[in-house]
Design a protein that fits this description.
By secondary structure, the protein is of the alpha+beta class. It has one domain. It is 19% helix and 15% strand.
Length: 53
C-alpha cells in the first residue's frame, strides 16, 4: 500500500476489524484502492421493514 494510505487503512481496519481481513482485500498491494462513496438517497430493507433516506 502507498504511504499516503496507511493512516486511513489503519482507521478502516479498526472500524471494520470483525470482517476486513476476510480475504476480499489486500492492504499489502500498492494498487489497492480505498474508495469513498457518499450516498445521496436510498432504501434499506431490514426484517421486512423498508427505510428510505
Amino acid at each position: 500500500m502507498k504511504k499516503e494510505n496507511h493512516v486511513i487503512a489503519g482507521k478502516l481496519k479498526e472500524a471494520f476489524a470483525e470482517w476486513i481481513d476476510n480475504g476480499h482485500n489486500n492492504f499489502d498491494d500498492e494498487n489497492t484502492i480505498i474508495l469513498c462513496i457518499e450516498l445521496t438517497d436510498g432504501r434499506l430493507f431490514s426484517h421486512g421493514t423498508m427505510y428510505e433516506f
